[in-house]
Structures are given as structure tokens and as C-alpha cells.
Amino acid sequence: MSTKPVTVTPASRLAAALPWVVWAGAALEAALVGFSPLLFPEILATTPADDTVEFGAFLAAIAIVVLVFATAGLSIARQQPRNAVGWLLLSGGPALGGVFLGFLVGVLLVATDPALGGWFVLLGVVLFGPAIYLVGPGLAFVFPDGRPLSGAWTVAFWLSVTAIVAGALLTAFTPGPLEESIPGVNPLGIDALPIGLRDVGNALTSMALAIGTLVAVASLVARYQRSPSDTRHQLKWLVFAGFLLALALPLSLAVGDTWTASLALVTLGLVPIAVVVAVLRYRLYEIDNLINRTLVYVPLVGIVAGLYAGLVALLQRIFTAATGNTSDAAAVISALALATVFTPIRNTIQAAVDRRFKPIAKEVASPWADPEFRSAVEAIVREVTARPR
To answer: CA–CA separation, 92 vs 87, rounded Å?
Structure first.
């Protein structure tokens, strides 16, 4: 039997090379962000000396997140080129890199070179909405098979995509200043357009991100309810990473320093890692243990930290009232007290989680569902029955 040779066309070569080209662009952006203090020493000149290490860690975290998103997308796009999840991650990496690179370099250059700085700021402003959508609501809409749920879910997905694109285009071509706090004007601005269109574009972007996120989360719940066991386990990986990110982001906003911002970025980098694990099904069924341990130890750490702080404060008040001075014994006594109650608290939380969180049992498919198995058995039966007695 002759087989036809596989014809390699320019289109197929381009399709095979495209993921690598996009990844290379993300890697270049990550390098520019990570090494921006060396390329643009003025960045460190505006940073206090005491904050140099923190700022360097922040830049490194940005570069790592951009590269992780792009690499995760490349891994999925190469193995499952028809799965939109890989392409969302792959494009989300350069989009995030463009946002950070645009604002970091643009704000610096706009004072000395308004024309060049304006192009960088424009890049950051225009890509902000699409970047957040690609790695957030858009990814949640199509995870894990690359398609949104049918019906109204698909309509909601495309409406949010349209709003994001429209908001970015309006921002890109509206004349006037790009940001109120940043000097310079839009280099792509069309003077015939009213300046008020920028507010319309910002409103479209904000609505698409806010409403799109809520609807995307609702679609994840609906997909979980109607999916088989394997898909439910895949969804758990994304929800697990999203849960950790939901813990880190409020902490970063509340504290407001560079270290917590870097922590939030590192947590964001866990999202593409979880997606790769889920889509490629590597150790897929260990997610239940991860979720179980997270549900136990996150509240446990919070309770222990709160009890320790409360006990130290209470004992210091007692020592101050009794002796007139504070004492290091308050911390020692508090630590000893928590050591005695740590295990009972952990066991109580573990029991509560075990009662309410029941891992989904892995579905064992019948071997008769496999066509090759049925064919093999039928062949054996025919051979046995056809033998002469």
C-alpha cells in the first residue's frame, strides 16, 4: 500500500513557525523589561536607593510572568494547535509585556523625547484591556477545550471580545493626551475625532472586563456542572490557581508595596502553569489533594497568625500593668500556647474540609467503550467458534 508524501506548503510552514515567532517576541519583551535599568539608567535615578532591590525584584517578576505565559501557550499550541487556550496564553504573554514595557519606558522617555515616549505610552494604554482579557475572562470562557459553551455563553463571549476590541481602537485613535497624569499626546490620534471618545473607550473596556469576568466565572460553574469527571478535574486546576491569585491581589492592593506586588505577579504566573498541567493532563488527578491542603492551611495560617498577635498584645498589656515594662516572655508564652493548640485547630479544619469537600472519584470507563478492545474480543470469539470440534 503506497502512501502519499506529505506536502509542506508555505502556509503550513508559517503556521508551524508562528508560535515560535510570537514566543520570541514575548522573550524579547521580557528581556527588555527585566534589563530595563541597564538599558535606561534613568529608571533607577528616579528610584530611592533603599528601594532598588525591591524594584529589581518587581521587574524580574514581570519578566518571568510574561515568559511563563508565552511558554505555556507555546507548549499547548504545539501539541493542540486547534485549542484556543494555547493561543490565548501565547498572545497574552506579549500583550502583558507590551503593557509593562510601554508604561515603564514611556513614562521615562516622554519627558525627554515626547514623540518616542508617546509611542511607548500608547502601546501600554492600548494593550491594557486586551492583555487583561486574554489572561483573564477570555481564558476562563474557553477553558479547557478552546471553545465557549454554546448558546448565550457564546454570545456573551463575542460581545465581550467586541467591546474589548472597540475600546482599544477608540483609545488608539482618539486625539489628545493618552493619560491625564502623563504628558504628551496620542501619536496616532485623528484630529477629526472628538476627544470624548476616549471616555467611551475606557467605559467599554471597563464594562467588558468587569461583566465579562462575572459571566466567565458563571460559565465555568455551568461547564463544571455539565462536564464529565476528566473535564471537572481540569477545571479544578484553573480554579485553584485563580483562588491563589484572588488571595494575593487584595493583599497587594491593601499593603501597596513593591514586595507584595511582586508576590501577586508570581501568583499570576501560576495560572498558565496550572492551565498547562490541566490541558496536557500531566498528573491530572492530584489536584484534589492540592485543593484540600490549600483549604486547610490558608485559614490555618490566618487563625494562628491572628491568635499569636492577639496573645502577644494581651500578655504585653498584662506585663506592662504588673511590672511597668514590656517583656519578651510574652512572645515565648504565646508561641508555647499556640504549639499546644496548633494540632487540634488543624485537625478541626481538616475534618470540616473533608466533610464538605468530597473529591470526585475517577470514572472508570468500561473496556467495551473502546472499539479496539471490542474488535479484539470479537476476533477471538470468531476464531474459537470457527475451530472444528
So the answer is: 8
Cα of first residue to Cα of last residue in the chain, in angstroms, is 37
pTM: predicted TM-score of the whole model, two decimal places: 0.71
Q: Which residues have C-beta within 8 Å of that of residue 113, sequence separation ≥ 6?
A: none
CA distance 122 to 128: 10
| Nearest to 285, CA basis, from 237, 353, 221 | 237
Quick check: helix, strand or coil at residue 305?
A: helix
151 to 14, 154, 258: CA distances (angstroms): 34, 6, 43
* pLDDT tens across the length of the chain (389 residues): 455 555 557 666 777 788 888 888 888 888 888 777 777 666 666 666 566 778 788 888 888 899 899 999 888 888 888 889 999 999 998 898 889 888 888 887 777 777 888 888 889 899 999 999 999 999 999 998 889 999 999 999 999 999 999 999 998 999 888 877 777 788 888 888 888 888 899 999 999 999 999 999 999 999 988 888 778 888 888 888 888 888 888 888 888 778 888 888 888 988 998 888 888 865 554 556 666 666 666 676 777 777 777 777 777 777 777 776 766 677 777 777 777 777 777 777 777 767 765 554 444 444 445 555 555 555 555 554 555 54
Cβ contact 219:209 at 8 Å: no
